[in-house]
Amino acid sequence: MTTLSLLQKISVLAATSAIAVMATTGKASATTFYLGNGLNLPQISSSFSYSEDGISLVATGTQNSGASRNVYQSILGLGVANNNNILNVGGNQIDGGTGLGETLKLTFTNTAVKLLSATFSRVGSNDSFKLLVDGNQFIAADIPGGNFLDLDISKFTFSPSPTGTVFGFTVTDGNDDYLVKYVEVEAVPEPASVLGLLAFGAMGAGSMIKRKQQQKAMVKA
């Protein structure tokens, strides 16, 4: 086999590796985080941690001044506590009340993710949300559904899906308040992982060339 033919095989092998990587990435499965506690027993803490399918998540709270806020957790999901009273359900939502502008921050600590959807609870009529991705506003939108009793549960699907490590759920005005019950994400492979697979393919091709050259040398001898 000529050197040109071997080089052509290397190109094919590298291209095949790249296609395999892209196909694997495209088929990455979604992971759903339930942010509630599974019990009708509200809790308030400085943070809550989660782990699903090897993805780690920490939830914290802030207000528009930048000051930290405790996080409220119930069977319906997460909110931001403004008075640390677990019985004050309305005050423990992500609230746009006077001077608050609270934000629930979901930080993925070991990988970047693509945010596919969020499910909101305690949704009232005309409630809206704003999503920050790594500190930058991505979208401001109405939460689907809602009722005058502030008791609706509604899912919002992101299209396109934002990618990042820190997702902030906040409000658009003083009338908004809600909890976040679920988030659905998809892990994003690190560039180093993709390059590693391609390098592995190239190493295999290099070994093939070396074997061919050794075989030729033995035949000539």
From TrEMBL:
Q: Can you tell which superkingdom this protein's organism belongs to?
A: Bacteria
Q: Which Pfam families match?
A: PEP-CTERM (PF07589)
Signal peptide positions are 1-30
Key words, A-Z:
Signal
InterPro entries named in the record: Ice-binding_C (IPR013424)
Cite the Ice-binding protein C-terminal domain residue spans from the record.
Answer: 187-208
Question: Is Signal there in the keyword field?
Answer: yes
The name this protein goes by in its record: Ice-binding protein C-terminal domain-containing protein
This chain's source organism reads: Trichormus variabilis SAG 1403-4b
State the taxonomy lineage: Bacteria, Bacillati, Cyanobacteriota, Cyanophyceae, Nostocales
